[in-house]
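Memo to structure team: turn this sequence into structure tokens by end of day. - J.P.
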Amino acid sequence: MLKDHGIIKPVAKAIEDAAEDAVKQIFSMYGWKLKGREENITAQLASEITLHLMDKVKERLNGEVINGVHFWVYLFRKREEKEVGADLAGVFRFEREGHVVTKAYLAQAKVAKVITNKNNNKIVVVRDPRLRSQVRNMLSFTSSAYVFLYSPLGVRVVSAHVLNLLSHDVLRTDEVHYHSIGWLYAEMFKSFVGDHRLACYLRRYDIEQFAKDVGVSNVLMIKGVVENDKEEYLTWM
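Reply from structure team:
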């Protein structure tokens, strides 16, 4: 969170690596070329990748101490119908000397395909008539909303706002700006992105209630506490 702790690069890389591993594992299980790309099939694959991503982040970070900051990772999963069109809520909470900053985002996950454009560049493409309404629902809740595109190339993160500028239901990475998931978390750790008001729904550290209040299927919460403070503030979960 602050420069003197030096956590941004190693933690962002851990999340980036976890995401890449999750994508590769699922695509290797189901095949790099998806046949019969019905919406229910790709939705199930997106859900599986999201769950693997969460598990792998926990494997890499939970209980780790990085440059004097102790990390814990907490997960919540719910397979019921979503209320705001979000597959994942990401929460980051940082505690230092009794001061706390909590940021959060919402994301809709989609399985995309890779094609080669006329310039012989590989691009990621998803066509889904539901995406526009799902994005509108997320944006009605928070401006910190994103679309996670899962493909054999990894994870591409696109701002949900760009969907409002498109006149069609196709999202292509050669038409919009995108970043990696590691970039997203690095910027959240720096406090440049992430919604503090959304995070305020996380009362009493009850992530199950948070998921219900926000209407999201899965919650990935990362908590960082300066090591000297951990005994005083390690009072929950």
